[in-house]
Amino acid sequence: MVYLKTDEEVELLRKANLLVGKTLAELAKAIQPGVTTRQLDTIADTFIRDNGAIPTFKGFPNPYGGPFPASICTSVNHQVVHGVPNDIPLKEGDIVSIDCGTQLDGYCGDSCYTFAVGEISEEVQTLLTVTKEALYKGIEQAVVGHRLGDISYAVQQHCETHGYGVVREFVGHGIGRDMHEDPQVPNYGKRGNGILLKNGLCIAIEPMITMGAKEIYMQDDHWSIITRDKKPAAHYEHSICVRKGKADILSSFEEIEKVLRENH
Ligand code: MG
Ligand code: MG
Is the pLDDT of residue 144 over 80? Predict the structure, then answer.
């Protein structure tokens, strides 16, 4: 069931989501060749708990196997989503999508950013740029009076124009007391289709975009999703609230990008 949030609830969601942005900014400081995704997970877990929140991903149930063992998802290169942190050092030229969820005062934050490790190729940089642009094009459509399909269409259109694949099996979602609420927010669809967007609808929009074909499969760990053609994938996510005229973005990339600018 889709339910609309009160202004008070939106502020609680903002707090949880801003903490995700701050956590990802902490990780931005640490991402460099040689660091392992398990080390990043430890940083995130500590930071989230030090700020009075719970890492929502840890222990997240899995219909195919054991619960998620970490506090962030770290998807490297051809991993699309749900990558499990491990002891393999990141290397120059890799990309890593870090998806992070918090629960603070009963409300959930959920946001994702794809980071470059050292210098990456121009081709891969374009994938990151276009995927992030697609996220904001989707957000532009998340206003009162539009329909859900307007968001989906905008994301799909932007990515496919660049020849990229739009993953079908995983989608955005409503967000509130639960990390995953109704409605589902696909990254593909038709303009004018789907539910009417009303004031106070809070959703996570999260394009998962592949450089090659859109087909994916699950690795033996029953979590990590990778591209079939082993080409890289990018993933950016904001949690937003539908408002009249302009969506209110509850998560933030500001602190992340401040760190990235300072590191360059
Ligand atoms: Mg997420
Ligand atoms: Mg999400």
Answer: yes
